Amino acid sequence: MTASHYLVILPIDSAGEPFFAAERGKAPYNQMGLASKEEHLDYGWKTNLFDGGTAGKWDSGVILKSETDGKAWKVSLALPLDKILPGGAKPGRKLYANFYRSTPAPGEYMAWSPDFDKNCHLLSRMGALSLE
What is the pTM of this model? Predict the structure, then answer.
């Protein structure tokens, strides 16, 4: 899959996107596109999207629960540590992530670790998570 394919296959109501990497600022990394109807698309990026990136299917093994009540959307994810990263994640090590949520205004989103850009694939701004 190339960048041009990626831009047209996320669901219309896709509103959340978590990203996971073993190293901050470096591919490979995994991305999930979440929709409010418990749908998701999972990508494993070998190179960064904006460096002419290529992605394949990522078998995330996610267990996804999504709830909406007309005012809010709540998503719960359970991701197996052996699938969250290429080669798996191990206790005692860090992994890097960012979590994005789109807003009603086109082109605007919120990020757990702000990237100060309109680029969800800015891997250098991922936050660190410690597994214990």
Answer: 0.83
